[in-house]
Amino acid sequence: MAENVHGQSCVPRLQISGICKAFGQNVVLKGIDLSVRAGEVLALIGGNGAGKSTLMKIIMGIYTCDRGEIRIDGQVAKLGKPAASLAAGVYLVPQEPLLFPNMTVLENILMGFHEKESELKKRLSQHMQELGFQLNLQRKANTLSIAEQQLVELLRGLMRDARILILDEPTSALTFGEVQALFKVVQDLKRKGISMIYITHRLNEVFEIATDVAIMRDGVITLEGPVENFTKDMLIAGLLPQDADVQQNDRAYEPVRYSELKPVMQVKALTGYGFKDITFDLYPGEILGIAGVVGAGRTELISTIFGRDKTLSGQVILDGKDITGLPTKRVLEEGINFVPEDRHRHGLFRIRSISSNTTSALLNSVKIGRINMNRSQQKRIAKQYADDFRTKIVSLEDLIGSLSGGNQQKVVIARALSTMPKVVILDEPTRGIDAAARSDVYNIIRQLKEAGVAVLMVSSDIEEVVELADRAITVFQGRINGEFSREEITQDVLTSASFGIGQERKVRV
Fold this sequence. Notes:
Layout: E1 14-23, E2 26-36, E3 41-46, H1 52-59, E4 67-72, E5 75-76, H2 82-87, E6 90-93, H3 105-110, H4 117-131, H5 146-158, E7 164-168, H6 176-191, E8 195-199, H7 203-209, E9 212-217, E10 220-226, H8 232-239, E11 265-272, E12 275-282, E13 287-291, H9 298-305, E14 311-318, E15 321-322, H10 328-334, E16 336-339, H11 343-346, H12 354-359, H13 363-367, H14 375-388, H15 405-418, E17 423-427, H16 435-450, E18 454-458, H17 462-468, E19 471-476, E20 479-485, H18 491-498
Parallel strand pairs: 3-8, 3-9, 6-7, 7-8, 13-18, 13-19, 16-17, 17-18
Antiparallel strand pairs: 1-2, 1-4, 4-5, 9-10, 11-12, 11-14, 14-15, 19-20
């Protein structure tokens, strides 16, 4: 086998040629050509519905292609089943964790191995030490946060000596420290000659970790080459449709005048599992950002406000009414709606249509006589949000599971907004959403603000909080350790406060 001047094989480790795939009349892949050599990291980026997931499922043997071929180390690979792909040295670390909920972390990771458990545990311990991960291996998977589930999936992949590793949004739920540890592992794998396809929506990661980049749009590769040949602006331009109306962010819109308003929601000394003594006010037409690292208590806080978790002490007041400890159904009826971080566990009815998922939150409104909704009205509402969000669909009657992950997230957001709540809680609203769709979601959030809806937004994306928030609070180790006015919100300030660095700052409003 021929080698280049660096001693690496000139034959690509993975070569994809002319791959086509259609589902009925929907042509998803239109002749994909890609290659990855040993020790290379190919960053694959593209909009929701571009075909990335379908291509990865073909490589993993979950789908078969209609035309084209895949070669591994120069040999045509027959990858019609996942077992064949695994045997060929291909492993996919999925974006959405696929764990057995009633099994332990250790059982989930070691499933399928036939080696001695003592040897497997030794290898696993080494991987965890390299990554700086600390997980109780005897915990049940259903007790893990989304970030911890992602770590388990990553460990599953590292435990298998794959020559081709596919990482699908691996950092979407990781803290800064965990991301840096992952990047170190990726660098180590590169030096060992492992080939990687790195799917991400975080463009900064492309320049930090990848050797090459490819953009997929509408089932074709529209741009590819070595990373050093591109800038971030070039990648963003490549992601957008040719006729896209790119709107520039303008942070100069009129700020909320708190002294002239009465809070729509007041949280007073609220304490629950994972947080303590949280106090803040939320005003009509305000976007209040909550920043902090994974595990700081942000998700537990908003879950308790929404009635999913038990309140230990304190109060939640909505429009002067005490709603502390009310069940979620009652909280919805009072005027708060919620977009969860984990759409698969908490956000979707997977065997129902896109239309039904979009309007399902309106059912309570129908029962109490606020909305008269028939089938035609249901479709009209669903179509409105599909158009506003630029959701890539074939038919509103298709199952929600037929959509890409980002388009599913758009439907979950649309469902929360369809009830026109007084307060909407957004937990990582653009997780898994590409650059073009992110702009659509931002515009929708701003429209809510203009309509006087109060938005409580938890986001691990500091840039997102900087761009959208009128005011921000940071949560560190379960407590608010900083509150910042719009003029004071910067990436440096929020990042430092989120990690408990620097002096606490309170802003009087």
